[in-house]
Structure of Hydroxypyruvate isomerase:
Amino acid sequence: MEFSANLGFLFTDLPFPQRIAAAARAGFGAVEFHDQAQSEDLRLIGDLLRSEGLRLCSLNCAMGSTAGSAALAGEEARFRAEFLAARDAAEALEARAIHVMTGRVSGAGAEAVLLRNLEFALTCTDRLLLLEVISPATMPGYWLNSPERFEAVAAALPDPRLRLMADWYHFSQICGPAALSRLRGLAPHLGHLQLARAEDRGDPLAEGLPCWPGIRALALEQGLDIGLEYRPSLPPAEVLTSLRASVL
């Protein structure tokens, strides 16, 4: 288990390439991106990751104004172009996984569009494909807004490379007190975990997270990294120290 700095949330006072060195200085062993890499110099980013000794857990397909495009009818060409750009960045940077975003969409045909696009994506890469369940309260209209929808997709497309990225903040909003037990039930599908304070996506200090022992145990059992994707008010090094000290 390693802690990963989400560079879309942490060190955002710095230009994107400089966030990599900042994550290493703070004590992280890995990082993860949104879709920033696709507009950066990949050779430079790769050199920085290697020189700082950081693994890249995952990066996103393009988000755009629709928060992705994988479930949008009539946007299949857009999805393919965005996915191939993300795939090329993932391969150049040796990312373990690619996060595919479904987009904001409603209607009965969205799942069928998503399945076709995922089938295409799986033929194009050997990386894990991550789908994240996002709370409707945080992102109204996002198609993948419940664990049940993820389970339906996984049942229709039972490829072991298709995995769930589970963000504690979103799962807490969706599942309430049952969030941790729901995550345990989804353990065979998990590909990555993310952590933030449930109430406000703030600093996930161990002393304010009753769920932390259970999340840590789940990560260790499943061999998962934990991405810190939160809105910082404290230096990230302090959050890391808190999480690590609580399990010594």
User: Anything to note?
Assistant: The longest helix spans residues 76-93. The chain has one domain: 3-245. Residues 3-245 form a domain with the TIM Barrel fold (CATH 3.20.20.150). Strands lie at 3-6, 30-32, 55-56, 58-60, 97-99, 128-132, 162-167, 190-195, 226-228.
